[in-house]
Specification:
Elements: H1 10-24, H2 29-35, E1 37-41, H3 62-83, E2 90-97, E3 105-110, H4 113-118, H5 136-141, E4 146-157, H6 170-184, E5 189-193, E6 196-213
Antiparallel strand pairs: 1-3, 2-3, 2-6, 4-6, 5-6
């Protein structure tokens, strides 16, 4: 049984969240113009930590979840003010995940990357309104936002398997290949990134995500 990693020091956590918000309000327009995309993920310990012991990284709950949601909204609004001044179309939305809340983020894009992000999340067969979801409180607290239901998917890069020459031992390559072979048997869809058309991306459903924007 995997144990959930615990965290201590709530006051430190509140300060980390506040610092994360302030640091990410300003967008690096030079970087955006160069890469045509930018995003703000929840880089807050312990929610962004990597587990080396098999323990489960906790999802934000209670006050932490509320503060992070408010932070995503504040970052979105600050960046929207800057993007409104660039004089050309842009993509800017909050990706709010339900089950995998720590994967929520603010994403923006320009030029060729706009269409990529508009189509990153698959549309569900039966859409539901955020008011009828597990994060209905968000819709009530931030009525200025419009939310669209999409599928939360895990994106895997199948090019990362590589070739036997990339491994110290053939058995390591074969073990990795068996994992990828098992994954590809599951229901998924392929995604093409216009900036990296040769990368073999596959998307696997994990839950629901709501795309929020102020129109």
């Amino acid at each position: 049984m995997m144990r959930e990693r615990k965290y201590r020091g709530f006051q430190n956590l509140w300060e980390d969240i506040a610092s994360w918000v302030e640091f990410n309000k300003n967008i690096d327009l030079d970087y955006l113009n160069s890469r045509q995309r930018d995003w703000v993920k929840i880089w807050i310990s312990p929610f962004s930590d990597l587990s080396l012991t098999g323990s489960v990284i906790p999802q934000p709950k209670g006050k932490a979840r509320r503060l992070i949601t408010q932070g995503l909204v504040d970052i979105y609004k600050a960046r929207k003010k800057e993007l409104d001044k660039i004089g050309k179309p842009y993509y800017l939305k909050i990706w709010l995940n339900d089950r995998r809340f720590s994967n929520s983020q603010v994403v923006c894009a320009i030029d060729d990357c706009i269409d990529f992000y508009e189509n990153t999340h698959a549309r569900p067969e039966h859409s539901i309104e955020i008011e009828n979801s597990g994060i209905a409180d968000v819709a009530m607290k931030y009525p200025e936002f419009t939310w669209e239901h999409r599928l939360d998917e895990e994106l895997l890069n199948f090019n990362e398997l590589g070739s036997p020459d990339d491994y110290h031992k053939m058995e390591h390559y074969l073990e990795e290949k068996r994992w990828y072979d098992n994954q590809v048997k599951k229901k998924h869809r392929k995604i093409t990134d216009p900036n990296f058309p040769d990368v073999d991306y596959r998307a696997f459903k994990k839950g629901n995500v709501w795309l929020g924007e102020i129109k």
